[in-house]
Amino acid sequence: MEVIGVIPARYHSQRLPGKLLKLLLGKPLLQWTWESAKNSSSLDRLIIACDSEEIKNVAQGFGAEVVLTSKKHTSGTDRIAEVVRDIDVNFVINIQADEPLIHPSAIDALVEELKNNSKLVMVTLRKEISDWEEVNNPNVVKVVTDREGFALYFSRFPIPYRREKEATPTYYKHIGIYGYAKDFLYIFKNLPPSSLEKAEKLEQLRALEAGHRIKVVTTQFDSWGVDTEEDFKKVEWILTQRGYRS
Question: Does 76 map to a domain?
Answer without folding.
Answer: yes
